[in-house]
Amino acid sequence: MATSRVLVVNNGTLSLKQLRRRLEDLGSETDAVPVSEVPDRLDPRRYQAIVLSGTKVRAYDRDHYRPLIDLITTAGVPVFGICGGMQIIAVAHGGELVEGPQRVGGYEVQVDLDDPLFAHVKPTVTVFHRHTLYLREAPAGFRAIGRSEHAPVEFLRSADGRIYGSQAHLEFRGDGLEILRGFARLYQ
Fold this sequence. Notes:
This protein is of the alpha/beta class. The chain is built from 4 helices and 9 strands, in the order E-H-E-E-H-E-H-E-E-E-E-E-H. The protein has one domain (4-184): Class I glutamine amidotransferase (GATase) domain (Rossmann fold), CATH 3.40.50.880. The chain starts with a strand and ends with a helix. It is globular and about 40 Å long. Helix 2 packs across helix 3. A hairpin with a 7-residue loop joins strand 7 (142-147) and strand 8 (155-158). One of its GO terms (molecular function) is ATP binding.
């Protein structure tokens, strides 16, 4: 079987190296491109999935992210937005971000075990957070598949099950790796 390849879109994360390492530990090769250099189209023979990294700025800037949103909308492969990556996806689909308490470190999240993303975890996971913005509710065409005390949408899934999002940084902590393992099963 051929090795799968993931296009990692770098939205300015400080943990690109760790994110790529996690995906590679799960058996995927990775290529990283800055968000300003995303291709117009994705070659599904070359890439079997897209992962959007976190970001420190611009989640509200729809014009800046238009090429990225166009790419993930037309790609036809599984997509996973992590932290700011999820927020970019949500805002582009009409979601609203709100300020909340600053969370840095491990936090418990309840997940919907009926979703294949969570095939390798228990109903409560501990994931790493580093942010103050939260998605108020899932935008049209998406649903929340994980929640916590401070965030009603910790995990997000599109109605067709192709696009996922995580408020947390899954590149850290064991439960994050196991959630990424569930995502990898969608494209490997």
